[in-house]
Amino acid sequence: MGQYPITAGVFGKALAIPGTGNTNIIPASAWLFENQQQNPITGTNYTGSQIYLGTAGDVTVILSDTVGAQNTVTGLNLAPIFPANPSYSGFAAGTGYDTGTNVTTTAVSLVHKSPAKQPTGLTVDITVPVPAAIAAPTTAGTGYSAGAVTSTATTGTGTGITGTVTIDGANTVTGFTFTSGGTGYEVGDIVQLDQAASGNNATITLTEVTNGAVTAITIGNAAGTNYSVGDIITVNQGGSGLNCKFAIREVQSLLPTQAADAVTFKAVPVGTILPVAIDYVLVCPADSVALK
Predict the structure, then answer these.
(1) DSSP states of 134-195 as a string?
(2) Over the Cα atoms of the chain, what is R_g?
(3) Does the structure show a pLDDT above 70 at 152?
(4) Mean pLDDT to the nearest integer, 5-9
C-alpha cells in the first residue's frame, strides 16, 4: 500500500474502529499484519496508532505505552525454605497474631530498586487458631458478668489472652472461650480473668497454647506494586511480635484499565486526527479510523 500525506503526518495503513469502541483490554494487536501467528488473534491494541474522527464527539482512549500496576503479587511462599533459592528466608509463623483481613505488610527486597519503585501496598488475610475452650475454670471467682474478659498471668510470662466467660446464677465463672491466644504462654500456666466490677479472682489453667502463631496467609484486597520474587515480607499487626514472615513466590504486571488509565477528549470536531499515539480505543464516534 502506498503512503499518502495527511495533515498530522504520513500514514500508510488504516483500520476502521467500531463506532462504540471496545472496552475489552486485549493485548494482541488489532492490526492483523502485526500478528505473526499462523492463525492470528485479533486484539484491541492499536499499538501506537493515531485516530481520525469521521464524526464529531467524545473519544476515550488509553495512550500508547500506558501500563497497569507493575509487579503485583500473585503468589506467596509459605514453605520453611524458599525453594527457588535456599538463601532466602521462608515462612515464619510469628507470635501474638490474631486472625485478620487486609493486614498491612512491609517488605525487604534483595533486588536493588530506585526509591520511587520500592515494593509497597500488599495486604494479607491471616488465620491464627486459638486454644480450645476451657470447660471449667480452675477458680470460679465472684462478681462476673457473661461476656468479654482480659487476662493477667499469675504464673509464667505470657501476655495477651482475651476471651469470653459464661457464668452461673451466683455470678461465678463456669466456662471460658478464647478470642486471642496471646503470646509467651506455656501449658500449665495459670491465668487470671479480669473484668470490670468483678472480683478478678477467677483463674484458668492452660491445657493448650498457640501463642498467636499464623497458620495460613492469603493475598488480601491489595496485591501491591513493585515486588520481586524473593522479597521478604513481614505481617504488620498491632499487638503482635511483628515476626510473621514469608517470601514472595510470584509476581505479575497488569494491563492498563479503563477506570485507572483512560483519557477522554471532549467534543472533538469531525475530521480531527488526535495528535497522540493511542494503544486502546474504548469509546469513539462512528466512522473513526486508526492510522499508522
Answers:
(1) BSS-SB--SS--SEEEEEEESSSS-EEEEEEEEE-TTS-EEEEEEEEEEES--TT-EEEEE-
(2) 30
(3) yes
(4) 53
With CA atoms as reference, report the closest residue to 131 among 192, 182, 181, 188.
181
Four-CA torsion 138, 142, 147, 150, nearest 10 degrees? -60
For residue 70, what is the DSSP state? -
CA distance 61 to 31: 17
CB 210 within 8 A of CB 223: no
* Helix ranges restricted to H, the chain: 258-261
pTM here is: 0.80
The grid cell for 253 is 504486571
- Measured in whole angstroms, the distance separating CA 119 from the mean position of its chain's CA atoms is 12
Nearest to 261 by CA among 23, 16, 15: 23
Cell of 278: 493511542
| Coil vs helix vs strand at 60 | strand
* Per-residue pLDDT, 110: 81
Question: For 26-44, how does the pLDDT look when each residue is reduced to its tens digit (9 = 90+)?
Answer: 888 888 777 666 666 778 8
Place of cell 535456599: 86
Q: Answer yes or no: are the C-beta atoms of 233 and 245 closer than 8 Å.
A: yes
Contact by Cβ (8 Å): 114, 233: no
220 Ramachandran zone, left/alpha/beta (phi>0; psi -120 to 50): beta
In angstroms, the CA 34 to CA 290 distance is: 14
* 239-290 pLDDT tens trace: 899 999 999 999 999 999 988 999 999 999 999 999 899 999 999 998 899 9
Handedness of CA 250, 255, 256, 259 (dihedral sign): negative
Instruction: Judge whether 25 and 256 are in contact, CB under 8 Å.
Output: yes
Cα end-to-end distance, the chain, whole Å: 12
d(CA 257, CA 235): 29
